[in-house]
Write a structure and sequence with these properties.
Blueprint lengths: L4 H12 L4 E7 L17 E8 L4 H8 L9 H14 L4 E4 L9 H9 L2 E2 L5 E2 L7 E9 L32 E2 L2 E2 L1 H9 L4 H6 L2 H5 L10 H12 L2
Antiparallel strand pairs: 1-2, 2-6, 3-6, 4-5, 7-8
Organism: Mesorhizobium humile
Protein name: 4Fe-4S dicluster domain-containing protein
Length: 229
């Protein structure tokens, strides 16, 4: 399959029908170990698929209302179905961040969009702030003509106060990394109601990308998934 700008735009339009967007991409170098493409041969190019803000939420909710109540990992399942359907007939293999063995999605995202991690580990986007996500990727055995990613301004470098490191009651994030057990214990405990209902206090304290902040019900959904770990 020969790729043109029109083919990439067609993929973007198909994803947009479910609230998803292309998040950049790149071609693997000859000296890089690439994952398998649709035929099993090494992929030559990858397109990242994700979201900005909560645009996929209504599409996901409609789908969820048609599923069994006890469906496991519903958002991952929905994402796989949507991205997998887009891959069909377009010479692509769809992969997910939760696939085993894990693929280096964060490294791919940093390369595709020129982003860097925030103190919370989430990549900081110059427009979306911390309110974005990567839901999957499309692997191709053809080279896709894509412009090189420009290194984005890293907003964390100009943020002096760092409120994202001062809002958590149990100091879950620090220079030593993420205190998973302390965070989980707090979220599950009696004082964790604000986190359970409205999301991570540190993440919400970030002053950037607030127009894309997930609504409370979306944040509560993600926090509930975290608390079940």
């Amino acid at each position: 399959m020969t790729f043109s700008r029109g083919a990439v735009e067609e993929i973007a339009a198909a994803l947009a029908a479910s609230g998803l967007i292309l998040r950049g991409g790149f071609s693997f170098g000859d000296d890089q170990v690439a994952p398998a493409g649709p035929s099993g041969a090494p992929a030559k190019s990858v397109l990242l698929v994700g979201q900005a803000g909560a645009a996929p939420w209504p599409h996901f909710q409609r789908w969820l209302g048609q599923q069994a109540r006890d469906i496991a990992n519903p958002l991952d399942t929905w994402s796989r179905e949507v991205i997998g359907a887009v891959a069909q007939g377009r010479g692509a293999r769809a992969v997910s961040p939760s696939d085993r063995p894990y693929l280096p999605f964060q490294q791919w995202a940093m390369r595709a969009e020129g982003l860097k991690p925030s103190p919370l580990g989430i990549l900081m986007h110059p427009t979306y702030g911390l309110w974005h996500a990567y839901r999957g990727a499309l692997l191709f055995e053809d080279e896709i003509p894509l412009p090189d990613a420009h290194v984005a301004i890293h907003l964390c470098d100009i943020c002096v106060e760092k409120p994202c490191l001062k809002s958590c009651p149990v100091d879950a994030y620090s220079g030593q990394g993420f205190a998973h057990e302390a965070c989980l214990g707090h979220v599950r405990g009696p004082r964790g109601e604000p986190c359970r209902s409205g999301g991570c206090l540190d993440r919400n304290a970030c002053p950037f990308g607030t127009d894309y902040r997930y609504p409370p019900e979306v944040q509560a959904f993600h926090m509930a998934a975290f608390a079940r770990l």
